[in-house]
Amino acid sequence: MPLVDMKDMLNHAYRNGYAVGAFDLVSLDSLQAIITAAESARAPVILSLAEAQFECFDFEPIMAAAEVAAQRASVPVAIHLDHGASLDSAVKAIRLGANGVMVDALHESLFHNIDRTRAVVDMAHACGVPVEGELGYVPDMEGADVDQRPRPGQYTTVAEAKGFVERTGVDFLAVSIGTVHGRMKDKPKLDWGRLKEINAALGIPLVIHGGTGLSDDQFRKLITLGVAKINYCTVVNDAAGERIRDNVKRDRRSGYAALLAGVREVIAAEVEPRMRAWGSAGRAAEVLAQCRPWLNVERVVVYNAPHLDENKLRALMTEGQRVLSGIPGVRAVQAGSVVDKSTRYRHCWLIRFASPEASTSYLQHPAQVAFSDRLFCPVASDRISADYRVVGAEPGATVLPLSAVPASAGIPV
Fold this sequence. Notes:
The protein is of the alpha/beta class and about 425 residues long. The chain folds into two domains: about 5-290, TIM Barrel (Alpha-Beta Barrel), CATH 3.20.20.70; about 295-410, Alpha-Beta Plaits (2-Layer Sandwich), CATH 3.30.70.100. Helices cover about 40% and strands about 25% of the residues.
């Protein structure tokens, strides 16, 4: 179960002077290649899914694949929503398995950036999920040759960074000190003094977006000045594209599988050296030992509702699934009845939460309180509730009991 708490992972990197790579995945090939590289380097890794690239894949199935791949991996893995478009995007990402989120409000005013980011932090922290914020301007030229770089006036300032972190409560901060998204034609010139001051003022893991084009020496210096997460995408995608073009040159009549031959290998060959250069290689065992595993919680509620006929019972279950599944941190809601009618309790709810924190915050959510008080508790006074930590994301996952609570304790759905 090497899916680990992302905040623990990056705090470990920050304290120990290395950086974890966040590599964008756009397909199953890139997913498998990134995991292969991490396992070869024995390095922690972040699987990053950027909303800007959702046109390349269906978010829901690729998130399911990422979660299964993480659970099967022998190294620590986190799954991160990168540059989400809205609070709703973050809620959906957590529901689908992300344990780190970042919503992009960079192109709005500082006031609105703080306001939107604070809303994401409030929601995500209630689910136990850390949040990355971003402050300053990083040119958004993903996949293009970039002639311009951010002007010094667009860089992250120390005062704004300190105020932003204090007002939003973000766990990590992406800063602008001279990098760009995409390819820069000449060598990036980074503002080292600014980064040093920001690190001294904040004392939290810093993030660099636009790692393409930086030298190993520049990466090493970034890490000494507080960078614990490095986003890296363009070079990896370029290498995959070049491999496909080479396959076409070799045989223009190749089928789909032949066109993708070697793509995983070239992606892994780009990713693994970055892990070694950034100091994360060989850290897997200590990260696994020192970081909390990321485990879902399953709430099982068994109950009787003797005064409801079949139609009213089905209506209750349908309404409960609709209402409860929309609460942040709830990953799935299932309802059903027993096959063997001699069983003591006839009906059940199975509610999966992203984390223990999500299970706790759910109990205070207005939608849950209203449903339980108005519809469920009046007809199901005879009930038992139990929470379980879920070990593994695959079908047939093991569950470990946390507690069993009778109805008299006041626990609703």
